[in-house]
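Researcher: Re-running this chain for the archive, since the previous output was lost when a drive failed. Same request as before.
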Amino acid sequence: MTPSVTETPPGARRVLWLSTVAFTLMFAVWLMLGMLSIPIKNELGLTDGQFLQLTIAAMLSGSLLRFNFGMWTDRYGGRRVLTALLLLSVVPTLLVSQVTSFEQLLACALMYGVAGNSFTVGIAWNAAWFPRAKQGFALGVFGAGNVGASVTKLVGPFLIAAVPAAGYFGGVIPGGWRFIPVMYGVLLVGAAAAVWFLSPKVDRCPGRGRPFGEMVQPLKKFRVWEYCLHYVVVFGAYVAFSNMLPLYFYKNYAVELAPMLGLSPETSAEVGTLVKLSGPEYQTALAAIPGAKADMAYLTKAIGLVVAFLFVFPASLLRPLGGYLSDAYGARPVMVAVFAAMLVSGLLLTLPLGLAVVPFTALLFVLGAGMGVGKASVYKLIPDQFPRDVGAVGGLVGMLGALGGILIPLGVAPLQAATGLPSVLFGVLFALTVVSASVYAVMELAGRKSKVPAEVAEAQLV
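Model: Regenerated structure tokens:
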């Protein structure tokens, strides 16, 4: 059943808020290794290559099944599929608190990473409940759950400091960074109960009874694959950057940040050395400097807050604004503004200008804002063009967009080794943005209309 053009059916708002809360939590779970990267890397003595493998494992697990979950949501309903996905993520999330080696952490990342598929579940579920005239804003509000990437950044350092190092109940509930996955596991169970018992019992399933072949017909159209490319830039890159930016700041700006944050002169003098160490070497060097342990913990907390407020927040919380603007003015002019902002900021971040931390973070904010608005405008295009196939099309766009994010960490490592330039991280994104904007421009110059003709849209609803 497809919603009418203008009327919002009873229960739609419950679907929106329940799915948004669940998605925020699951996005935090999906990206928690990136948010806890510094303490995990230091404790387990992980190399940069090993941490890259962990990041890719979680991203793959949360991406490869997005198309399937979108189809299943259209066919069986978001209430069932989202509840099942929440429960499926509980055990591997809890097991992260018990890992003692890279191999164990890799296995957990592959399993709990399935939480990343919650995005296409929520997109398909909300599209089935909201009318086309309000889908941009509704999907933007839901998509703002991307802010889950900052949850661990914000609450993690405070909880790690507040929870005793030995944990509770004789270590049954561990302390330190290991408390975070335990907390998330408990919250996942609560979210599953809320979705199941509080959402409308009679769900909307636009794909129920439709043949599989009919549901995948839109995937033959180039327009779908164009949307995939745009989503690589505005979402896949966002995921990659959310994982990589804490370490990027730590390695490239810790020396500048140390005196700005009031770290002791002794620690500030050795920060340049400390950021190059991990494992036992790091612990030994830390113990040799009075007060360095507290100073470095404070530095890590500050970096997490900087990344959260100046990148993750604008790249997430501006998504409803992008949806509203796309509803009001159309998604295509919004995309033009997004490309302009990302190309200018991306170019300046790529050039070896030796930016100080303040102008660097200002440009990072512009880049994140472009991503936040752009994610909403891409997903407004999907129900506009394919109103009966949001699950299939949205699932494919979400899957390839997230998988595309792997191109950035995979491309960055060898290019940084070859050039010695940390800004290669932004160069890879800038190159992808140029390609995406070029495809967009070519399609516009070819005369593609900005909206589906009314008679075509109505015919698709039949």
